[in-house]
Amino acid sequence: MSDTRRRVKVYTLNEDRQWDDRGTGHVSSTYVEELKGMSLLVRAESDGSLLLESKINPNTAYQKQQDTLIVWSEAENYDLALSFQEKAGCDEIWEKICQVQGKDPSVEVTQDLIDESEEERFEEMPETSHLIDLPTCELNKLEEIADLVTSVLSSPIRREKLALALENEGYIKKLLQLFQACENLENTEGLHHLYEIIRGILFLNKATLFEVMFSDECIMDVVGCLEYDPALAQPKRHREFLTKTAKFKEVIPITDSELRQKIHQTYRVQYIQDIILPTPSVFEENFLSTLTSFIFFNKVEIVSMLQEDEKFLSEVFAQLTDEATDDDKRRELVNFFKEFCAFSQTLQPQNRDAFFKTLAKLGILPALEIVMGMDDLQVRSAATDIFSYLVEFSPSMVREFVMQEAQQSDDDILLINVVIEQMICDTDPELGGAVQLMGLLRTLIDPENMLATTNKTEKSEFLNFFYNHCMHVLTAPLLTNTSEDRCEKGVFKRNYRYCWSFLCTPSHSHSTPPTPIFQDNIVGSNKNSTICPDNYQTAQLLALILELLTFCVEHHTYHIKNYIMNKDLLRRVLVLMNSKHTFLALCALRFMRRIIGLKDEFYNRYITKGNLFEPVINALLDNGTRYNLLNSAVVELFEFIRVEDIKSLTAHIVENFYKALESIEYVQTFKGLKTKYEQEKDRQNQKLNSVPSILRSNRFRRDAKALEEDEEMWFNEDEEEEGKAVVAPVEKSKSEDDFPDSYEKFMETKKAKESEDKENLPKRTSSGSFKFTFSHSTSAANGTNSTNSKSVVAQTPPASSNGSSSKTTNLATSVTATKGSLVGLVDYPDDEEEEEEEEEEEEASPRKRPRLGS
After folding, report:
1. pLDDT (0 to 100) of residue 132
2. Using CA atoms, how far apart are residues 615 and 575, in angstroms rounded to an integer?
3. Within a 13 Å sphere around the CA of 490, how many CA atoms are in the beta-carbon half?
4. Which residue stretches of the chain have pLDDT < 50?
5. Who's near 852: CB < 8 A, 6+ residues apart?
6. Can you give the residue ranges of the PP4R3 EVH1-like domain (predicted)?
7. Nearest Cα to Cα of residue 344 among 86, 82, 21, 71
């Protein structure tokens, strides 16, 4: 149906006395057999579904408001409204309603509102008492009028009768003339009566009376009457505020006089409702529902009129993005858009969609990019609110913009990086703005609201973009504050240096690293420990970043896995387990818990090779016998490993840390891990015993190259399962590509080195428990070993005896020459002796972590 005359929006009044939009459709009046009467039907314009089916009841009171609204109540506390696109359509349906009820279409209310308790009394009332007789409008009658208005408020039928009498006799304008006389005569008693009268008329809740009271001619006198509250010793000065203090700022001159009048009226009526009128009691809360509706529909009309004026909006955007615009003007423009977006929330979904598309077309996102980087805190705050409206409405629209922008701009000025920078640089001690921005970032990177079409996958495209262009900006504070040479190499580039003035004093030369502030708050007592600024604001910021990274671990799988491996991120995060702020240590632990919760063997190998349980166990031992959240969280982590029977992690924990943990008996977690480990060891031994000796030989093993190929295949499968498309890996340096191999070589070197380094041996704490030293080089873990370390690896001979070295060399050559991934060798008689010698030498050689003695 294309008839715009009957195009309507359907609204219902909710429990909070706010109008909820139920949809847009076309209304018709027809006889419905099931309802046995003429009914109003509204069918949705999108799919033709039935939005409304309401019988025109002969006793229901329908009200016509503002020429395009019809409002009525279907049942107790269930109000309905039809908002027509055109006045002609409203008049046509109104005639149908009046025809069913036998009323003249010229009336604006078809029935008196009658509640059940008054039906009998109303039937007994004589026909001659149709209207209430009003006293003559004179000064000496004001008290009588006030008593009359106050007395009818408890009776719906009497409220209706009084409203009709006030409307028919033009009584409100006469009362306002008396107000002017009382004010000139300084008649305080009369002014107090007029306050009660005008307040009572507002509580009649009649739209027709509101239109008179809120007209340009009357509204300031209405406000004047409401200044003289008898409960106040001195009258308020609301008129002075509205006329002198409150200034109407036109960022761009509004030429439409009707629009200007509507804006003024809405502001003043909102002021009356929010400021002047006292908060209604439980018994009065329904009295002003029509006033709320009046404001609501005014806002809808204002947004629609502004949106249709393309010349006006174009001019606003032009000035907002013009470099010549001064700061005060730009602040006004941003505040205008903030209020404009707030008003748009009253629109129905289809109109709101068109509204935001109009803003996007005009360039709201590039404009926000400019104003969010300004120094003015008020402007940045308003810009953040506007950005939140856009993200909540359509995350895909924002994502599409930033991906297109990345093709033309540097990473430093990308919108998302500007948002991250604002989060990092929030000067609020409580980081209120940073928390809001973090929530918006999480919405943008949430795969749940990303679209997947036949032509493209938004998920894979956007996540590739985010990890290549934005993730390094997000993690910069974390990596900087957990590195040994933090701030020395200017990680934040030029645009982050000023943000971190509260962390470091300014550096005077490039060769001298900045000196951290709060020296006594830096964790780590020895020079091998990693530096970590531990002031409260930094800790809060790092907690926010960790919360976002934890979200990524849960939802991004492949991309975040690649990033964690390349940056050795978990090791850096676990440095924060040393923080004096328990909430930050718990955030770091939660990050590790999410990783382990995935039960991914890639992550498990990464954790065991890096010995990353060490800082967690140190934190548990340092916590001592205190029973607190940190203790419970660490125990839960190990309990999860035990319950889920993650074998590789169980073996690593028992083999390396059980000596330090066996004294913990208030939970059975660690003994349970030992039991699981021993059971698995027994099963493996039973399997070996049932296998022929040639297969059981250690010489029958997987080729190292084949293992790497299998891992790469597994990695690619994981990628395809997540994005259903080939995803480009995060850009990384050559040293990062070699991370797994160089890391293993580094760890082999550490085996030899640690046997000579007495400082790295486990030490007893004052409580008698064991303490580990977490001093792995971060650069080595990242696969960026120094030249010296590489030379050590090259010079380190294999751990074998002289007598068997030649054989070992020959065997290694034969393994390399074999193309298959499995290599079978002849079982020589003296092999078992050689294997025993090798095992003895392995036991004698230093381990990555020495066995712990009692």
Report:
1. 79
2. 7
3. 12
4. 1, 113-129, 283, 486-532, 699-701, 718-747, 750-751, 753-854
5. 657, 659, 660, 762, 770
6. 5-101
7. 21
Other CB atoms within 10 Å distance of the CB of residue 74 = 14
Q: 828 Cβ partners below 8 Å, 6+ apart?
A: none
Convert 117-149 into a string of H (helix), E (strand) and C (coil). Answer: HHHHHHHHCCHHHCCCCCCCCCHHHHHHHHHHH
Both tokens assigned to 357: 């598309």
Quick check: 623 and 630 in contact, CB under 8 A? yes
Q: What is the DSSP letter of 767?
A: T
Q: Which of 294, 348, 270 is nearest to 85 (CA)?
A: 348
Region label for 557, one of left (φ > 0), alpha (ψ between -120 and 50) or beta (otherwise)? left
Q: For residue 297, give the H/E element and its range.
A: helix 289-308
CA 596 to CA 124: how far, in whole Å?
78
Q: Are 684 and 707 in contact (CB under 8 A)?
A: no
Question: What's residue 797's pLDDT?
Answer: 38
Helix (H, G, I), strand (E, B) or coil at 770: strand
Residues in contact with 644: Cβ distance below 8 Å, sequence separation at least 6, in sequence order? 599
H or E segment to which residue 478 belongs: helix 471-480
Number of H helices, E strands in the chain: 39, 11
Smallest CA-to-CA distance from 620 within 574, 655, 651, 652 is with: 574
Per-residue pLDDT reduced to its tens digit, 81-134: 898 888 888 888 988 888 888 888 878 777 654 444 444 444 444 333 456 788
Distances (CA, A) of 418 to 231, 560, 566, 580: 52, 21, 25, 31
User: What is the C-alpha separation between 587 and 545, in angstroms, rounded?
Assistant: 9
pLDDT of residue 99: 84
Q: What's the chain's length in residues?
A: 854
Cα–chain-centroid distance for residue 147? 53
CA distance 617 to 634: 8
Q: Structure pTM?
A: 0.60
- Rounded CA gap, 825 and 752, in Å? 30
Q: For residues 808 and 798, is the Cβ–Cβ distance under 8 A?
A: yes
Residues 6+ apart with CB under 8 A from 471: 563, 730
Q: How far is CA 730 from CA 164, 241, 465, in A?
A: 73, 58, 9
Tokens of 742: 């160089």
Residues linked to residue 169 through DSSP beta bridges, in sequence order: none
| Two structure tokens written together for 558 | 């492949």
User: Is residue 699 within 8 Å of residue 811, measured between CB atoms?
Assistant: yes
C-alpha span between 3 and 524 (Å, rounded): 75
Structure tokens at 5: 């005359």
- Can you state the angle between helices 471-480 and 458-469, rounded to 10 degrees? 40
Cβ-contact 746, 780 below 8 angstroms: yes
Q: What is the pLDDT of residue 112?
A: 58
Identify residue 31 by its one-letter amino acid code.
Y
What does the block give as tokens for 786? Answer: 């120094």
Nearest 5 degrees, angle CA 670-CA 672-CA 675?
A: 115
